[in-house]
Amino acid sequence: KTCDPKKVAVVGAGYVGLGTAGLLAHLGYQVTGIDVDLDRVAQLQRGEVPIHEPGLDALLAAQGERLTWTTDYAAVADADVVFICVGTPPSSDGTPDLRYVTAAAASIAAHLDARPLVIVNKSTVPIGTGDFVQRILEDNALTFDLARHTVVSNPEFLREGTALADSLYPDRIVLGGSTEALDCMVKLYAPLIEQSFTPPPATPRPEGFTRPAVVRTTLQSAEMIKYAANAFLALKISFANEVAGLCERVGADIEEVTTGIGLDTRIGLRFLQAGLGWGGSCFGKDTQGLISAGDEHDYDMPILRAAIDVNYRQRRVVIDKLLRHLKTLKGKKVGVLGMAFKPNTDDLRDAPAHDLIQRLVQLGARVTAHDPIAMPRAAREWAHLTYQAADSIEAVFDRADAVIIATEWNEYRALDWAAMTHRMREAVIIDARNIIRTPLAAEIEQVGRAV
Ligand code: NAD
Ligand code: UGA
């Protein structure tokens, strides 16, 4: 049997599904995006993009008839390849909640027929989920035939905020599964592997980029690679934060230190930025997910546990620094700059700013917070927090006793800091992302260095 993929279905229209659908349509495939969220699908059908991701609106708009959105799984019956891109949030015990993957697999099973179909798992899932999905397909399909219906693991490594460049110009494409199914995936991704597509205007090919490596593995190895990659990046950041704490105590500068170690190509400069630690939907969930996988096999993973401890300690350290300057927070006005977990996204999942605001309010502070993009979303998702949403950046500083920089948006880097601190009552700045470069007539605290 030959594989000649032309039609693709993408299940789940979140950060990963939207990017995957846009990418595959851009590579020339006929793509149907399927989501169970009626509002989300209606929005997409109207040409509105439900998340903030630079370049995504233009990429999706440019696809025209090649890309359609529906709530109807019938599109699976027509597809040669179907991607599962639904969420895998943590359950209360830290293990990944597979209910959306299970539901998606059961819905796909209902549309399996005699046509060959490759079912590709792009969601981040515990090792063994590929086999689990196959069992759901077997249990729920009228016809399931291992020779025609195969499950592949193709983990996603995109970062929010730079999702399109990460998807179009990846370092590597990891594919786990049977030889035949992987041959089919290599055929599907040929324009990406060979970089034969025309780059979208908003996302040009980086200078010097040639082509991604293709890593062919077993299902289990591909699933493990995703967790191990995120866990390694997370612990790299925690390492920088742990060393930063000691830098503060001995008078060293963490940025000089990370440059000095990162230029050793065995270490590398990236993901050594000390600050407020990681947030977002994945590093916390996936480090915990890997620890839970260890627990299932009675196998301890102390390095990962320590990486998590160091990460969440960073959020408390910021408050401790503030208390050292202000003594008490009762009745004090504290401004928070940045709510999203990182710049260039409106994603608020596990954002450090959430914990900061919550703690500040508990300690009696009046909090005014700002974000260039995420404020409307925060109004919906953080309604349980009692903070004032700032209608301008200036409003964060006006008569404030202290301001904390929680997310390093370019808008904040570009501020006239001298003018801003003039608006404050007591000029205490906790720059938890190390963005201020010039000395100011204010009390400034950074992480692992003195300004
Ligand atoms: P998300 O929460 O943004 O989107 C998930 C989407 O799936 C939602 O639109 C939801 O309505 C839809 N959905 C849920 N159940 C469904 C069903 N049965 N059928 C169809 N649609 C359904 O999630 P995300 O951030 O895109 O993450 C998806 C997966 O990819 C997760 O496993 C995550 O760990 C992984 N991942 C995420 C990123 C990232 O940067 N966000 C990067 C790499 C990998
Ligand atoms: C991360 C990984 O980088 C992606 O490869 C992966 O696909 C994704 O998780 C996922 O599985 O969802 P993402 O969370 O979108 O991507 O964003 P990152 O750029 O990795 O940043 C994560 C957090 O770490 C942010 O809060 C950021 O502020 C923080 N960070 C990052 C640091 O504190 N220091 C750094 O040096 C880098």
From TrEMBL:
It comes from the Bacteria. Substrate binds at residues 157-160, 226, 271-275, 279, 342. Pfam families: UDPG_MGDP_dh, UDPG_MGDP_dh_C, UDPG_MGDP_dh_N. The active site is at residue 282. It catalyses: UDP-alpha-D-glucose + 2 NAD(+) + H2O = UDP-alpha-D-glucuronate + 2 NADH + 3 H(+). Its EC number is 1.1.1.22. It is an enzyme of class 1 (oxidoreductase). The keyword Membrane does not apply. Keywords: NAD, Oxidoreductase. Pathway: Nucleotide-sugar biosynthesis; UDP-alpha-D-glucuronate biosynthesis; UDP-alpha-D-glucuronate from UDP-alpha-D-glucose: step 1/1. One of its GO terms (biological process) is UDP-glucuronate biosynthetic process. NCBIfam families: NDP-sugDHase. PANTHER family: UDP-GLUCOSE 6-DEHYDROGENASE TUAD. This is UDP-glucose 6-dehydrogenase. It comes from Deinococcus reticulitermitis. The lineage of its organism: Bacteria, Thermotogati, Deinococcota, Deinococci, Deinococcales.
